[in-house]
Amino acid sequence: MKAALSRGVAVRALLLAAVCAGPAAAQDSGAGKALFAQHCAVCHQASGVGQDGLAPPLTAMPGRYAGTPAGRQLLARVGLFGMYGEIDSGGKRFNGNMPAFRALPDHELADILNYLVFDVSAATRGDDVAQYQAEEVAALRGQVMGGAEVRRQRSAVLEGAGK
């Protein structure tokens, strides 16, 4: 119990530090773009526009999510644990099964998330969003979560954002 509490405090501290770190500096998105092309583009397309009925677009929500602690956690959890079940995105319904990418190292998941937030969905991102760090992903990796739970968390994040 004490270890779980300490881990929870550590996760919150890392997320708070990441969100409060201030505006992101210019970054080299080449690694994230290459990893996205390798692991994500087959469903979400190279430009992140998605495929009707299969994979939602990633051109808006990652930028919005990255501005809140709950949203940042959600994005990292989608990468780590996958997500399945029906969702609405951009007025369209999707019922897919995004695989978990837990096998990728923390720094690679952070690179993909940064590419999504700072390149693919940059138009919807706030100016004060911090870059993902490998440590932020690592702090969430110790949790055990299924894709259905990630989808439920997505609903809660959207509800909290007034969407």
Describe this structure as you would to a colleague.
One of its GO terms (molecular function) is heme binding. This is Cytochrome c. Residues 27-120 form the Cytochrome c domain. This protein is mainly α and 163 residues long. The chain has one domain (2-160): Cytochrome c-like domain (Cytochrome Bc1 Complex, Chain D, domain 2), CATH 1.10.760. The protein has helices at 2-20, 30-39, 41-44, 61-65, 69-81, 106-120, 134-141, 147-160; strands spanning 83-89, 92-98. The chain has a two-stranded antiparallel sheet. A hairpin with a 2-residue loop joins β1 (83-89) and β2 (92-98). α6 (106-120) crosses α7 (134-141). The protein is globular. It starts with a helix and ends with a helix.
Principal-axes shape call: globular
Instruction: Quote the beta fraction.
Output: 5-15%
What is the CA-based Rg, rounded? 15 Å
Quickly count the domains. 1
Tell me, what is the CATH class? Answer: Mainly Alpha
Q: Strand order within the widest sheet?
A: 1-2
CATH superfamily: Cytochrome c-like domain
How many alpha or pi helices? Answer: 8
Largest sheet report: 2 strands, antiparallel
**If you consult CATH, what is the topology?**
Cytochrome Bc1 Complex, Chain D, domain 2
Class from helix and strand fractions: mainly alpha
Mean pLDDT: 84
- The tally of strands reads 2
Q: Tell me which CATH architecture applies here.
A: Orthogonal Bundle
Question: What is the ordering of alpha helices and beta strands?
Answer: HHHHHEEHHH
- Give the proportion of residues in helices: 40-55%
Low-confidence stretches: 1-26
What is the terminal-to-terminal distance?
A: 35 Å
